[in-house]
Amino acid sequence: MILGKRPILTEVRIKPAISGRVTQGTFDAHLNGFRFLTKKQDTVDFTYSNIKHAFFQPCGAEMVAILHFRLKSPVLVGKKKVTDLQIYAEPGTQVEDTSR
Prior knowledge:
Blueprint: E1 8-15, E2 24-29, E3 33-38, E4 43-47, E5 51-57, E6 65-77, E7 80-89
Antiparallel strand pairs: 1-2, 1-7, 2-3, 3-4, 5-6, 6-7
């Protein structure tokens, strides 16, 4: 049981996109599942019991941190039914030293 403040990731994106373009919003953990909420109040909800596999890919050679979920049964993202969701964040931009 999560008491007090619930864990929230802000300024993250979802794949596949809800409206056909890059969709940014917040990703929160609730008592029975996860919710992705955009600024336009579009939501994607899925329960913990619907998660078949979950993977975390930290920033490494690529500048993107990813949470990947494979679901047991599809959920609606926009108008599409999907079983694979990715929540990702780009923590910074890669900087090259051009002074040489």
